């Protein structure tokens, strides 16, 4: 847990037991998860505590929220190298329409887009849909 504790401290997040366990849970899954997925992984924890923890992670740049078109928000860990939440590089996401997994494709960045004058970007999301590497062989 020392490595996780360091990451939390770098992001100015106090390393409580729940926060350490949730970070490890998210890191070990390696796919985006819903709040219900998190609750299932922490059956003895309070739903409000889990929600507040994921929102704290989001606020401090540890996770990002993904809208993959399913109507349910999913969360995934951000790249651990950046400590500035405003400098997180935007990357593609892939949603498997067979198994419903959503995966960050951090090696594939979204390029800067020049908008017409007067337009202001507040959010950007690019999701590719199809079959993941596990489901494409079925």
SSE inventory with pairings:
Layout: H1 2-10, H2 17-29, H3 35-41, H4 47-59, E1 63-66, E2 74-77, E3 91-96, E4 102-109, E5 127-130
Tell me what you see in this structure.
- With 138 residues, this protein is of the alpha+beta class.
- The chain has one domain (2-130): Arc Repressor Mutant, subunit A.
- It has helices at 2-10, 17-29, 35-41, 47-59; strands at 63-66, 74-77, 91-96, 102-109, 127-130.
- The strands form 2 sheets. The protein has a 3-stranded mixed beta sheet, with no helix packed on it. A two-stranded antiparallel sheet has the order 1-2.
- Mean pLDDT is 89; it is low at 83-87.
Radius of gyration based on Cα positions: 16 Å
Q: What portion of residues is helical?
A: 25-40%
What is the end-to-end distance? Answer: 37 Å
Put simply, the count of helices is 4
Pattern of helices and strands: HHHHEEEEE
CATH superfamily: Winged helix-like DNA-binding domain superfamily/Winged helix DNA-binding domain
**Structural class of the secondary elements?**
alpha+beta
In CATH, what is the class? Mainly Alpha
Task: List unreliable stretches of 5+ residues.
Answer: 83-87
Strand content: 15-25%
Largest sheet properties = 3 strands, mixed
In the CATH hierarchy, the architecture is: Orthogonal Bundle
Number of strands: 5
Number of domains: 1
- The main sheet orders its strands as 4-3-5
Assign the CATH topology.
Arc Repressor Mutant, subunit A
């Amino acid at each position: 847990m020392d490595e996780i504790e360091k990451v939390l401290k770098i992001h100015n997040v106090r390393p409580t037991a729940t926060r350490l366990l949730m970070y490890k849970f998210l890191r070990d899954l390696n796919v985006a998860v819903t709040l219900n997925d998190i609750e299932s992984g922490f059956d003895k924890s309070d739903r409000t505590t889990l929600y507040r923890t994921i929102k704290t992670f989001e606020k401090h740049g540890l996770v990002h929220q993904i809208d993959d078109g399913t109507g349910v928000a999913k969360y995934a860990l951000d790249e651990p190298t950046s400590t500035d939440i405003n400098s997180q590089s935007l990357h593609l996401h892939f949603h498997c329409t067979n198994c419903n997994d959503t995966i960050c494709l951090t090696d594939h960045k979204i390029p800067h887009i020049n908008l017409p004058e007067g337009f202001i970007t507040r959010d950007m999301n690019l999701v590719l849909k199809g079959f993941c590497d596990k489901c494409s062989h079925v």
